[in-house]
Every structure is written in structure tokens, then in C-alpha cells.
């Protein structure tokens, strides 16, 4: 039987605190209720949980296949389905993002256990990407609906790991549209020139962090947070000096689906190589296109022969 839950909204835009559910002993009714609450509130907080690693992982498995981090190593735990960030080892996610969007199938849910947190500082913020999309003007929404963007793992030293996703995605459960570009992993609008892309991405990635779309959580040890990466982004405030340790279980899922196929062809220059062609190199590589660059103008042993 499902337990009686107390659900308290935390901000006008998104976020709710849930009491009355034990993450360590959640049954099928609880899981169904959590899914429902996530559709409504996008990010949930379960205070006073402190699950063991195995309980944390078991809770995650109810929601889909799990994956540890594809590029980053855990500093303190070997468990293959746990991802850790330890602040004293540089683990502070202080850029707005949705998780691992450089993959063809990015994360659907993140389930985070706050293992140790500073007495003050190190809050996390989330923003509602449905509202960020819906509050754009009609012409801007229409433009964004027809675009796709290249994402990469450059923040992990792997700019060669890339994926292309729609700029606006359709949530498979709610049918709502949300903005799906982020400061951390999104590099380039595929259908625009580098210069146009830089301006539009700069605008959109600032826009999504407008305070009115956000909720901010002050942590306590033992709290579990769970969010839907398909319709939110998050950001950690780097304003603390004590240790902060989180453990995350990452639920994987489907490929982001756009409103329709991109309305335009990729914009890259493969002829007329010029100084600016370097900006197209990464996109050309992802698309498997061979481009001439100024490097071909330099003397190579072959040319000298
Ligand atoms: O440390 C946090 O609060 C969140 C870190 C983060 O970006 C993540 O776990 O995906
Ligand atoms: Fe994250």
C-alpha cells in the first residue's frame, strides 16, 4: 500500500519537498506516486533519508537503467552505478546544465544523496525549462522549434565526444515542450553560423537561468533530491569552503525528440576555407564532413616533395 505523503511546494516555478516516503523501502505504489509528483514539480526533495549505497541504487533501478558517469571517476566509492562529486577534489557543478547531454541518450532522472554538506553555502538551484520555453515570444519559439544543437564533453576534457539534440524537446510523458540547450555542454546551433549561434546560445543560456524559473535548495545531510533532466537544468553555488560530498544515481533513457526534424540544413563552410573555418571544425567532424582549413596552406613534407 502507498503511504500518505506530505507534499510542500517550494517555489512558484518548480520544486516540492516530500515527507512520508522511505526511499530505502519504496514499493510500487510509492514509485508510481514519485513519477506523478515529478511530472508535476520536476524536482523533489526527500529529507532525512540517509540510504545505504545499495538502497540508493535499488531505488534508482525502479525508474530505469542506471549508468555511472561515462567520463569521470569516483573519488571515494567504487560502486559502478554511483557517481560522486567531492568538492575538495574539484567536484562542484557551477555551470547551468542538464546531465550528460553530450550523449545520444542523456540522463532522464538524477537521484542525488547529500552525504556531507557545508553548514552554509553550496546550495543547488534548478530551473524549469518548460516555462523558459513557454515565456519566449512566438517568433523565438518558432525559430527554436526548427533548430538542433551540438553538445560536447569538453568540460571533461573530451570535446571529441559529441551529440546533436533538438533545441526544443517534447517530453514523452507530458507532451510539453522544453528548452534543451545548456551553458555547460551545448556548443553550437547546427543550422546557424558560428557567430549567429554564439549570440543565440548566449541569449538562451542566460534566459533559462532567470530567477523566476528557479528554485534554490539549502541542503542538509541525508536529503535525497530527484529531478527530471528532460525539463530542468541545475547549478551549484560555489560559495563554500567546507567539504561537500554528493552521491548520484543516474537513470538513463530515450533519445530526446524534437517537435519535428530540423527545418534547415547544417550551416558549415566546407569550401572557401578562411580563418573562421576553425569554428566549423567540430561540427564538420561530427557530421563526417571533410573541410579545408588554413592548415592546408602550410608547408607539409608531402607538398615539399
Ligand atoms: O552537487 C549538486 O548539488 C549537484 C551536482 C550535479 O550537477 C549533479 O549531480 O548532476
Ligand atoms: Fe548535474
What is the 3D form?
Answer: globular
Given as residue ranges, the uncertain stretches (5+ residues, pLDDT < 50) are: 301-305
Strand arrangement within the widest β-sheet reads: 1-2-3-13-5-15-4
The hetero molecules present are:
2-oxoglutaric acid, fe (ii) ion
- How much strand? 25-35%
The total beta strand count reads 15
Structural class: alpha+beta
**Helical segment count:** 7
* Helical amount: 10-25%
Radius of gyration (CA) equals: 21 Å
Give the biggest sheet.
Answer: 7 strands, mixed
Write down the overall mean pLDDT. Answer: 93
* Distance separating the two termini: 80 Å
Compressed to H and E, one letter per element, the order equals EEHEHEEEHHEEEEEHEEEEHH
Structure notes:
- The chain is of the alpha+beta class.
- It has helices at residues 28-41, 53-61, 129-134, 138-145, 194-207, 281-287, 301-304, and strands at 6-9, 16-19, 43-46, 83-86, 107-116, 124-128, 148-153, 158-166, 168-170, 177-179, 186-189, 214-217, 224-228, 232-236, 245-252.
- The strands form 4 sheets. A 7-stranded mixed β-sheet has the order 1-2-3-13-5-15-4, with helices on one face. A 3-stranded antiparallel β-sheet has the order 12-6-14.
- The relative contact order is 0.21.
- The model is unreliable at 301-305 (pLDDT under 50).
- It binds 2-oxoglutaric acid and fe (ii) ion.
- The site of fe (ii) ion has 4 residues, from loops.
Amino acid at each position: 500500500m502507498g503511504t500518505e505523503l506530505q507534499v510542500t511546494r517550494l517555489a512558484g516555478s518548480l520544486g516540492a519537498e516530500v515527507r512520508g516516503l522511505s526511499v530505502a523501502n519504496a514499493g510500487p505504489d510509492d514509485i508510481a506516486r514519485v513519477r506523478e509528483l515529478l511530472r508535476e514539480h520536476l524536482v523533489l526533495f526527500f529529507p532525512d533519508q540517509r540510504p545505504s549505497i545499495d538502497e540508493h541504487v535499488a531505488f534508482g533501478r525502479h525508474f530505469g537503467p542506471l549508468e555511472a558517469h561515462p567520463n569521470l571517476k569516483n573519488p571515494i566509492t567504487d560502486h559502478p552505478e554511483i557517481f560522486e562529486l567531492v568538492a575538495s577534489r574539484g567536484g562542484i557543478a557551477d555551470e547551468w546544465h542538464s546531465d550528460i547531454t553530450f550523449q545520444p541518450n542523456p540522463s532522464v532522472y538524477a537521484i542525488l544523496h547529500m552525504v556531507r554538506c557545508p553548514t552554509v553555502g553550496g546550495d543547488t538551484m534548478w530551473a524549469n525549462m518548460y516555462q523558459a520555453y513557454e515565456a519566449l515570444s512566438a517568433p523565438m519559439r518558432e525559430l527554436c522549434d526548427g533548430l538542433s544543437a551540438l553538445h560536447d564533453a569538453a568540460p571533461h576534457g573530451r570535446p571529441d565526444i559529441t551529440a546533436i539534440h533538438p533545441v526544443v524537446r517534447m517530453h514523452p510523458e507530458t507532451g510539453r515542450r522544453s528548452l534543451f540547450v545548456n551553458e555547460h555542454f551545448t556548443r553550437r546551433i547546427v543550422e546557424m553560423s558560428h557567430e549567429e549561434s554564439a549570440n543565440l546560445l548566449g541569449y538562451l543560456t542566460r534566459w533559462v537561468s532567470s530567477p523566476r524559473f528557479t528554485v534554490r535548495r539549502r541542503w542538509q545531510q541525508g536529503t535525497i533530491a530527484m529531478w527530471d533532466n528532460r525539463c530542468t537544468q541545475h547549478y551549484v553555488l560555489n560559495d563554500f569552503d567546507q567539504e561537500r560530498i554528493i552521491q548520484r544515481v543516474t537513470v538513463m533513457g530515450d533519445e530526446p525528440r524534437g517537435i519535428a526534424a530540423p527545418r534547415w540544413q547544417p550551416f558549415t563552410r566546407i569550401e572557401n576555407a578562411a580563418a573562421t573555418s576553425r569554428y566549423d571544425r567540430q561540427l564538420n567532424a561530427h557530421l563526417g564532413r571533410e573541410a579545408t582549413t588554413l592548415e592546408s596552406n602550410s608547408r607539409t613534407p608531402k607538398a615539399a616533395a
